[in-house]
Input
Amino acid sequence: MQIEHRKKRGKPAEPVKTPRESMSCAHGSQCGWPVSRRDFVAGVGAVAVGAAMGSPAWAASAVDSQATDPSAGSEVPLSLTVNGEQKQLSIDPRTSLLDLLREDLKLTGTKKGCDHGQCGACTVLVNDRRINSCLTLAVSIDGDNVTTIEGLAKGDELHAVQQAFIDNDGFQCGYCTPGQIISVVALISEAKSGAASIVTRDLRQAGPVELTDDEIRERMSGNICRCGAYPGIVAAVRQVSGKSPTQTAFEDRVRGDSSAAF
Output
């Protein structure tokens, strides 16, 4: 509907309605419609949506879908040992281990970075093996032992890896540092047990694996540091493994050489 305004002297403009659109009838004469085609289409759509939403069948199907969803509003028991403390919990079965630690147990040292298992900021130890907690359902590790960054130090005494990161400037903003440190703790254990990596030179050799810079970078490749503190992290791992930081790592850190990244 189009509206035209006519100005009258001394009075405000009043809207004047123009005639409705007309269509040709079967005998060729003009037929005046009470509504425009646009209003008609809009009205039909509104009636169709309203009928569908108010349909008893639609409402029943929605109720049935909620009733058949096993995770809707249900909780399951969970038993974990977290940093040496036994935890008895009741949680939504869809809860990730990361959310359980941060939201339920208030252990916020473990960070949520990408939430897709790509950055390593959420790394924790489960039965002394490192995992991405953002990709792990808490119910899948029922009865297991979890260690987070809060569980490494003994009172005021820092873990050797924590101290090595401080000594070698293995961090900058610190957001990824908890995951980095947890990964290094696991890395040292893996190398001592003889677990090989893709860059291990002799896969037939039994016993501990020598942690060269290439080995360290490969084994830490799942942990991203956006600040670029990789040379300091490599130096920290070497310190903990009983080797002095390499001169190359120190020079790379001074130059800001990106080739030192994992």
Summary: Residues 37-53 form the longest helix (17 residues).
